[in-house]
């Protein structure tokens, strides 16, 4: 038996008036997913434990079978694993987003945050911006590390974990009430704004109508994680396929093989088909038992508040991931189970994560079912099946 989990980050949503009260999952044309749903178990699952903030960190740990209440020590330390930072027990890691602030207000505190990703800035551009700030701010206490696109990392030597506002939660707001109380972090944010707003890359971006990456925003602090091996836990060999450091960090922390896919960038135009092909090679040629395919695009489109782009991302997952997986697995003659779900909702109307339950689909090629339902939130609720803990999903997949 081969096992596949396809995770559309932030894919779940709420009814949209402009689409006749349909969610993006309902509005999207997804023939491959819907045909599979008619032969599958369908239900809803709570992926965010009570009392924990809704995020891809806690949700993906939960989906993979690692109870966040036991294993979670913060988002950024997991990303540090992917970047290759060997954290000391006294280190504290923080995510360092390169964000877009307005530049017209008279003071820094009066600027408004308009984009948490600087227009999904390229890794090449954002790394140059990171180097410009690093040269001014890095010292024995603070060290910066380049990640992917707008997602970078700060390590605070002998630091402490502090609660800081997540940038995607405060889009469209004046930043003053959300700035850190810590004097050092506030100073670094102000200095980054002074350094970056007139940087040549940002001048060029503005001339091209793109959002500039003009400020560092720190959040998601945590200490070094200690995750048990996936192979020891499940007695299966697994691969992690994702463009983002968080998921690659989870894969590294749990001892899974990380597969880098050329053209996978975490955005709307990521290499969807390349991810499916990489999973198939791992399962059918390289002797792996389990493939975790993570696709960031729906979440990013949710943060942008762009329903059309979110629907497009869902349709491309259906066409270029679910479809090829089904066809190739059937042609191979291998028995397999495939699970498809979001990690959490990222509603268009809210532009941030929520803790609501999400729909899951579980297909077993050896036990095809016979239903009339399609894959979406409404029919997931209508199935009458609800899993109270996301960490129960893996027990159903590997039963």
Question: How would you summarize this macromolecular structure in one to three sentences?
Answer:
This protein has 399 residues and is of the alpha/beta class. Helix content is 35%, strand content 19%. The model has no long low-confidence stretch (mean pLDDT 96).
SSE blueprint:
Blueprint: E1 2-8, H1 24-27, H2 31-37, E2 41-45, H3 56-63, H4 68-71, H5 75-83, E3 92-101, E4 113-115, H6 123-137, E5 142-148, E6 151-156, H7 183-196, H8 200-207, E7 215-222, H9 230-234, E8 238-241, H10 245-253, E9 257-259, H11 272-284, E10 290-295, H12 297-304, H13 307-332, E11 336-341, E12 358-364, H14 377-382, E13 386-387, H15 393-397
Parallel strand pairs: 1-10, 1-11, 2-13, 8-9, 8-10
Antiparallel strand pairs: 2-12, 3-4, 3-6, 3-7, 5-6, 11-12
Description:
A hairpin with a 2-residue loop joins β5 (142-148) and β6 (151-156). This protein has 2 domains: 2-72 and 228-397, Alkaline Phosphatase, subunit A (3-Layer(aba) Sandwich), CATH 3.40.720.10; 92-222, no CATH class. An 8-stranded mixed beta sheet has the order 9-8-10-1-11-12-2-13, with helices on both faces. Strands 3, 4, 5, 6 and 7 form a 5-stranded antiparallel beta sheet that branches. It starts with a strand and ends with a helix. The radius of gyration is 21 Å and the shape is globular. It has 399 residues and is α/β, with parallel strands linked by helices. The protein has helices spanning 24-27, 31-37, 56-63, 68-71, 75-83, 123-137, 183-196, 200-207, 230-234, 245-253, 272-284, 297-304, 307-332, 377-382, 393-397; strands at residues 2-8, 41-45, 92-101, 113-115, 142-148, 151-156, 215-222, 238-241, 257-259, 290-295, 336-341, 358-364, 386-387. The chain contains 15 helices and 13 strands.
